[in-house]
Amino acid sequence: MSTASAPAPAPARAAPPAISVEAVSITYHSSLQARGQQTLVGTLSRLRRRKKIVKQVKAVREVSLEVPRGTVLGIIGANGAGKSTLVRAMAGILPPTSGKIEVHGRVSTLLALGVGFDRKLTGRQNVILGGLAAGLSREQLEGKYAEIVEFAELEEFMDMPMRTYSAGMYGRLAFSVAVNMEPDILLIDEALSVGDAHFKRKSFDKMRELCEAAHTIVLVSHGMRAMRELADEVLWLDKGEMKGYGPPPKIIREYQRFMKVEEDDAVGEEDV
Ligand SMILES: Nc1ncnc2c1ncn2[C@@H]1O[C@H](COP(=O)(O)OP(=O)(O)O)[C@@H](O)[C@H]1O
Ligand SMILES: [Mg+2]
């Protein structure tokens, strides 16, 4: 019809990735003197003496990646590798020391079990407060409430203070709230191991459902099976650095080989 020589625009490319992480480093500065008994007077006198010993931990080093909309990023790595730190930064809880994180969409987080619940309040109160904090209206919450409770299988316990809950009950409610908020972006840190075998199965199925429903998910896990089945891409962190990044089977294979070698080498070696 016309002179169609100009390259066609690529409309789909216009949408930004759900999460973009650009050269992010995160360093913790922890005061070593915080050990021992913590009395107010003691703390004050230490402060006055200014005997400050600060230990720096570079938990995340120069990590860059993008999580496209509707994909699942898995993060693996040994204890202390920086997985939780990176996810906390994605959640906006922890600012990067350097670099930049951009997030497009409504985030729901399930971080290291139970952050966000107040144990003095009842399950019902926590669910409602959590929902309001996540930006749901009262009407939306009304609809969601029953679903959340049913999924968690805690009908009889919702009016009891959460301090009376077992760890499993606590985790079940946390998981149920996070997955039922219909977030655009779901960040889950090691939470597939919550509850008994029956609930694990259920959580896994729910996760798969969310993954298939084009949600963007970041999943931190030790479970390689979950990673293989759910993740589109896997990031392997080692001492804060990106040791691998790519298709799950490849990265998991490399990780497992590496961990095996580490184990064989680790004769009397201390965790640094
Ligand atoms: N609040 C904190 N203060 C000081 N150091 C921390 C803090 N949280 C984590 N770290 C340290 O940062 C490193 C990464 O921890 P983390 O992100 O929890 O690793 P992972 O989740 O992979 O086990 C570890 O060396 C850990 O000891
Ligand atoms: Mg962790």
Map the helices and strands.
Elements: E1 19-31, H1 40-49, E2 54-67, E3 72-76, H2 83-90, E4 98-103, E5 107-110, H3 123-133, H4 138-152, H5 167-180, E6 185-189, H6 197-212, E7 216-220, H7 224-230, E8 233-238, E9 241-246, H8 248-265
Parallel strand pairs: 3-7, 3-8, 5-6, 6-7
Antiparallel strand pairs: 1-2, 1-4, 8-9
The chain binds adenosine-5'-diphosphate and magnesium ion (MG).
Helix content: 25-40%
Category from helices, strands and their pairing: alpha/beta
Bound molecules: adenosine-5'-diphosphate, magnesium ion
Mean pLDDT: 83
- How are strands sequenced across the largest beta sheet? 5-6-7-3-8-9
Low-confidence stretches: 267-272
From the spread of the alpha carbons, the general shape counts as: globular
Give the class-level CATH name of the domain at 68-92 and 106-264: Alpha Beta
CATH architecture descriptor of the domain at 68-92 and 106-264: 3-Layer(aba) Sandwich
**CATH fold-type name of the domain at 68-92 and 106-264:** Rossmann fold
Q: Tell me the major beta sheet.
A: 6 strands, mixed
Name of the CATH superfamily of the domain at 68-92 and 106-264: P-loop containing nucleotide triphosphate hydrolases
Separation of termini?
68 Å
Using DSSP, what is the number of strands? 9
* Strand residues, percent: 15-25%
